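Duplicate of #3305? Posting structure anyway:
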């Protein structure tokens, strides 16, 4: 180790021991360095990057359940064992959620010790009082409060932080039944509306029927657009759909385009519907809070060209001439890329594009697994979480369907500013999925996004594309290699795919064939912040 005044610390058996400015270290000397992990909330240094090659590194994880129970018992020998066990299990769950970015703070054994010491020293106090001393501050964070209360309640730990729990009502999922109609199409039409909303299978009379022909519905052929009335879907084969005459396809397409234009006018003129917006917003409020915590910890990634000194090759360093005369070899310098220090401020904004799947299969299979609802909730989550971060992250949202590979929904740096504007965005996405033609432009959409972001990559600290998809690629003959090739088409832009829908194991198989760490399967939106945190930690936070 070279000190700032020129002296050097060496091992005791170094031949230079005895020379001026050489300090031999004692044979029994040991240096133990403790470090928090980098990132929020402890803001530790990146030990592996700075000193990992100089130390024998040991990562200390949280204690096991039995170890933590033994530790708490030593602080509270008179506290009932059942109480200690409930605390241990609750805190273990807190840490799991913190790792998934669903809680802002990784509650440690230290907080559990405070509770146990309180119960030991003041046995007349209630459990609720002891717990509230630790968690009182969190009542000002509504998202964290709801999660904490839910877990504490599950483990039978009473606490008084006035709250309201919200539950999302699920809806029954549809089944799909394969069938053949054996009949020809004639002319596309909306169909009659059934006031009783009874299920209609086959035929060409009723709007919202399944497995029929000519009318708006699901699973049939020749109709002008999709229309889901919530019934079991009877679906005809792809071969039967492919045999539709071209003039019928053209007429159906024209009718669908007209209906889409009318729907957009209705969306633009409609009043804000708080009830509809809350159906998509309320279930993801915890995730919004978690995302905002992650975004708060973003830091600079772009590298800087600097002189690296003490090198064994390169340009001679004039300040190291004396060392060269005495035989030192590391007297050279050379230009190299240096990563920014941990926590360094961004000098440029980061560029992020969200690519949403608004193809017909998203609408068609929404009743099967809720994939379109899940995507719209994810979009609301992103729009709410990224609010007020537009100086640090330039975000835009585009979509793709059988119509085109790039449909602009939210232009760059023009995030909707209120709930009415955000609701309009997801209504437009929903309408596009209902009225677009069948087909898939996933690969083309990724390639277009990569090309677009690569063209301006020098203006940003980092460029990243996140693709939301239902993994329904096999139907259109798209091989995973094509998807992977588009994702890796330019090294200046990192692309990640998040599959939020799947028939069978399609999504899992696709993920396995993509570049490592670049594909994710997410059937539960509570996992989105954890996925984005992993994406950011491997891309934006580097």
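Output from current build:
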């Amino acid at each position: 180790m070279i000190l700032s005044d020129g002296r050097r610390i060496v091992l005791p058996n170094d031949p230079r021991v005895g020379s001026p400015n050489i300090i031999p270290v004692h044979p029994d000397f040991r240096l133990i360095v403790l470090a928090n992990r980098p990132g929020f909330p402890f803001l530790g240094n990146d030990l592996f990057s700075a000193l990992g090659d100089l130390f024998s590194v040991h990562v200390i994880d949280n204690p096991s359940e039995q170890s933590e129970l033994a530790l708490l018992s030593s602080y509270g020998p008179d506290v009932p064992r059942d109480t200690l066990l409930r605390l241990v299990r609750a805190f273990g769950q807190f840490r799991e959620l913190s790792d998934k970015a669903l809680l802002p703070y990784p509650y440690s054994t230290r907080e559990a010790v405070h509770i146990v010491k309180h119960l030991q020293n003041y046995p007349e106090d209630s459990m609720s009082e002891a717990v509230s001393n630790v968690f009182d501050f969190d009542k000002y964070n509504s998202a964290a409060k709801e999660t904490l209360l839910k877990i504490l309640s599950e483990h039978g730990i009473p606490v008084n932080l006035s709250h309201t729990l919200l539950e999302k009502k699920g809806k029954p999922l549809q089944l799909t039944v394969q069938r053949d109609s054996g009949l020809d199409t004639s002319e596309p039409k909306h169909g009659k509306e059934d006031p009783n909303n009874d299920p209609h299978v086959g035929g060409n009379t009723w709007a919202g029927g399944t497995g029929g022909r000519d009318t708006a519905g699901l699973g049939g052929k020749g109709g002008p657009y999709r229309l889901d009335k919530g019934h079991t879907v009877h679906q005809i084969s792809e071969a039967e759909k492919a045999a539709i005459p071209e003039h019928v396809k053209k007429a159906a397409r024209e009718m669908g385009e007209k209906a889409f234009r009318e729907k957009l006018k209705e969306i633009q003129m409609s009043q804000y519907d708080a009830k509809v917006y809350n159906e998509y917003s309320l279930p993801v409020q915890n995730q919004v809070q978690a995302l905002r915590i992650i975004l708060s910890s973003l830091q600079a990634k772009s590298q800087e060209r600097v002189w690296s000194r003490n090198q064994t090759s390169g340009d001679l360093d004039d300040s190291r001439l004396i060392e060269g005369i005495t035989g030192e070899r590391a007297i050279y310098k050379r230009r190299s890329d240096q990563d920014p220090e941990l926590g360094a401020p961004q000098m440029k904004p980061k560029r992020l594009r969200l690519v949403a799947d608004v193809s017909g299969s998203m609408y068609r299979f929404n009743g099967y697994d809720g994939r379109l609802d899940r995507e719209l909730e994810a979009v609301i989550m992103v729009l709410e979480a990224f609010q007020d971060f537009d100086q640090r992250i330039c975000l835009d949202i585009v979509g793709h369907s059988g119509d085109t590979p790039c449909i602009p929904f939210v232009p760059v740096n023009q995030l909707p500013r209120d709930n009415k504007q955000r609701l309009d965005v997801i209504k437009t996405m929903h309408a596009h999925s209902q009225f677009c033609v069948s087909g898939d432009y996933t690969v083309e959409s990724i390639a277009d996004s990569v090309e677009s972001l690569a063209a301006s990559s020098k203006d940003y600290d980092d460029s990243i594309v996140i693709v939301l998809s239902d993994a329904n690629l096999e139907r259109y003959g798209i091989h995973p290699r094509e998807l992977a090739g588009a994702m890796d088409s330019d090294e200046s832009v990192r692309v990640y795919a998040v599959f939020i829908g799947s028939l069978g194991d399609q999504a899992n198989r696709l993920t396995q064939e993509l570049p490592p760490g670049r594909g994710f399967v997410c059937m539960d939106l509570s996992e989105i912040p954890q996925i984005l945190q992993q994406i950011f930690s491997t891309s934006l936070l580097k």
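Confirmed duplicate; merging threads. The first strand starts at residue 8 and ends at 10. The chain has four domains: 65-154, 176-267, 304-338, 350-538.
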